[in-house]
Amino acid sequence: MREGTSTNWAGVAAVAGGLGFAGFWIGSLLKVELVPWPVALAWHGLVIVLLTIGAIGILRSARGSEMQTWLGWLGVALVAVGQLFALEITMIGFLVFGAAAVIAPHLSRWGGGLLALGAIGFLATTVVNGRFWGEPNPTPSLVPGLTFGVSLLLIAIGWVILGVPGTGPTRLPSRGFPPVGVVPPD
């Protein structure tokens, strides 16, 4: 490795975990079975580990308030536990972690917002149309299927933005008002 460069492995884990999560569940949504069951189970296990490592690393770099830190840790726990027990718990974890990222001073508000928005879309579609996974493993109709798919893509994009270094806090430009404490030129 060249001097002066480093790899943010937690960011890499978040990106890989987010893409792996979306890929796994979009495959389930489309009823695509490209790999044997043990490989799919290993993929799912790897996604759990990657998302947990990525979320912990992102949270540690946030340097936010006490409330943001508590929300972040709650989100990490819900993501990890939800992957083991219920997809809905994972989505609540994404929502909470996304909210924590939005209020963190050193994280991308876009990444957190997209993560939370994807989770809300997924949960709302699940409430209105029911699950597409588990037994009896129904195939959703077009609109719910697209909504699930878009929600999963928003979640993946949110993790990618949060995991890529240099996509730190983004603020909308002010409407001509100077920042607090700055005297405008005459």
What report would you give on this structure?
With 186 residues, this protein is mostly helical. It has one domain (9-163). 68% of the residues lie in helices and 0% in strands. The protein has helices spanning 9-29, 37-62, 66-85, 87-103, 109-129, 142-163. Helix 1 crosses helix 2 and helix 1 (9-29) runs antiparallel to helix 6. It is globular and about 60 Å long. Residues 1-5 and 170-174 have low confidence and may be disordered.
Blueprint (SSEs and pairs):
Blueprint: H1 9-29, H2 37-62, H3 66-85, H4 87-103, H5 109-129, H6 142-163
Helix pairs in contact: 1-2, 1-6, 2-3, 3-4, 4-5, 5-6
Concise overview:
This protein is mainly α. The protein has helices spanning 9-29, 37-62, 66-85, 87-103, 109-129, 142-163. Residues 1-5 and 170-174 have low confidence and may be disordered.
